[in-house]
Structure formats: structure tokens, C-alpha cells
């Protein structure tokens, strides 16, 4: 009797279908411009399984700080620049099937690309299921700040033209930063026609901003003035300066402390 029961049990297991891999799922990443104008992908790193689809949400409905973003993907075993999937003023989302294990790098070429301070991240793809997808939500509705302290500040809008293949950001050198009677002065050098933005921050709050359109390379002064209500108070401000070229690529941000004394 026991022998017949054992044989029946083994036969039942033998006839069961083989276990299959977990079904592929869609995983999401959100482009995000924070309240302090940090441009990041949210989250910066996600796990995935071979065969999953990764979708980047490029638009931020209702976010007044939303900027233009694109997505480039560099699969494992390949080198940059990789493949451009799309840009936010052409499509609200772009997707990629991650069909090989390893680290899939992705980046926004408009905001410093794959540089350490750039808007970039990785999809870590394995052969086993890392768990259910996590929706990134709408962080601009909660005012969350990204964890990456090196993310570039950005308050740009969509460019009027897109130059395919122009992934080289402009350069800006901060030669000198000094306090003035009304705020601060940044002496900067640029190497191409750009818009130079200078701003003063008190903690996380932006208190003054100045933009200057530069038509040719050279050295110039950019004065940024404090609001009149702040000019009779001694305080320390953070001066930040960067350049933006004609296709909305930003330079690295140059910064200095300004001790303002009325």
C-alpha cells in the first residue's frame, strides 16, 4: 500500500509542468526638477529582471520647475553615447526592454550626461525577479528633494531647436566673486555664445537671480542685486553661476560664498 502511494506521488510530481520564470514587468523612472532646481532621475538606480521593460516618464504635469529632458541608454558591454530614446517635448515617455544582464546606464544629455554631477542612473539587470515594480509617483507634488547633492540646478524651458548629436555642454570659469553695495558681482569667462545665470541663495531659498545673454566668447561681469528689503541686513549668501548654450546644455555650476555688509 505504502509503495503504491509513493509511486503515485512521484508520478504526480513528474507530470507537473516545469516551473517558469516570473513574467516580465514594466518598471518606471521619473525625470524630476526639485524645488531647489535639482534635475535628477527618480529613482537614480532600480533593479530589474532580464526581459523587463523600463519606462522613463519625461514630463511633470503641474510642476512649474519642469525642464526639458532626454534619455540616452548605454547597454552592458557598450560605450557612450549609446542610443537616444527621445526627448520630453517630443514624447511624454520612452521605453527600453532590458534584454541582457548587467548595468544599463542612462542619462540626460542636456544636464551633464554621465559626468559625476550629471543627471544619470543605472538599471541593474539580473536573471532573477527583484520584486514588484515601485511607482516613483509625483515627487514635485510633495516637494521632496533628491538625495544626490551634486545634481545640477536647472530652471530652463524647452529649446526652440534641437541639434542632434550636440552633447557637449558649455564651459564657464568663475574668475572672481565679490560683494557689492547691492548684492554680488561674478567675473566669469565663457568660450562660446551662452546665457549666463547668476543667483544668490540663503540656505535653500533663492533670493535673487540675474541672466545675461553673451553673444561672443570672453570675460564679463555679472551683477546680481538683492531685493531692497534685504540690503540693510548683513548676511552670508551662496553665489552660483552657470552657462546655458543654444540647445539648453548647462555648464558645471561655479559657486562662492559672499559676505554681504550694508
Automatic annotation (TrEMBL):
Write out the entry's keywords from A to Z.
Signal
**Residues in the signal sequence:** 1-23
InterPro entries associated with the record:
Cupredoxin
Which intervals of the chain are annotated as region Disordered? 123-167
Q: Which Gene3D superfamilies match?
A: Cupredoxins - blue copper proteins
Name listed for the protein in its UniProt record: Cupredoxin domain-containing protein
Provenance organism: Solirubrobacter deserti
Amino acid at each position: 500500500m505504502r509503495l503504491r502511494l509513493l509511486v503515485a506521488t512521484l508520478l504526480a510530481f513528474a507530470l507537473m509542468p516545469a516551473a517558469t520564470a516570473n513574467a516580465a514587468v514594466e518598471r518606471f523612472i521619473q525625470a524630476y526638477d526639485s524645488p531647489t532646481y535639482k534635475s535628477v532621475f527618480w529613482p537614480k538606480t532600480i533593479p530589474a529582471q532580464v526581459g523587463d521593460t523600463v519606462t522613463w516618464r519625461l514630463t511633470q504635469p503641474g510642476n512649474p520647475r519642469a525642464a526639458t529632458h532626454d534619455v540616452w541608454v548605454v547597454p552592458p558591454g557598450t560605450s557612450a553615447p549609446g542610443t537616444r530614446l527621445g526627448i520630453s517635448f517630443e514624447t511624454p515617455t520612452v521605453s527600453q526592454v532590458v534584454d541582457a544582464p548587467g548595468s544599463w546606464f542612462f542619462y540626460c544629455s542636456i544636464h551633464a550626461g554621465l559626468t559625476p554631477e550629471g543627471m544619470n542612473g543605472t538599471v541593474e539587470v539580473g536573471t532573477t525577479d527583484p520584486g514588484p515594480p515601485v511607482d516613483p509617483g509625483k515627487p514635485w507634488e510633495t516637494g521632496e528633494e533628491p538625495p544626490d547633492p551634486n545634481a545640477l540646478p536647472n530652471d530652463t524651458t524647452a529649446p526652440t531647436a534641437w541639434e542632434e548629436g550636440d552633447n557637449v555642454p558649455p564651459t564657464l570659469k568663475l574668475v572672481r566673486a565679490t560683494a557689492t553695495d547691492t548684492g554680488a558681482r561674478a567675473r566669469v569667462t565663457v568660450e562660446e555664445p551662452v546665457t549666463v545665470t547668476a543667483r544668490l541663495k540663503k540656505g535653500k531659498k533663492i533670493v535673487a537671480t540675474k541672466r545675461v545673454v553673451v553673444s561672443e566668447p570672453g570675460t564679463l561681469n555679472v551683477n546680481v542685486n538683492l531685493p531692497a528689503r534685504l540690503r540693510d541686513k548683513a548676511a552670508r549668501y551662496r553665489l552660483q553661476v552657470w552657462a546655458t548654450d543654444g540647445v539648453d546644455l548647462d555648464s558645471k555650476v561655479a559657486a562662492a560664498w559672499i559676505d554681504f555688509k550694508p
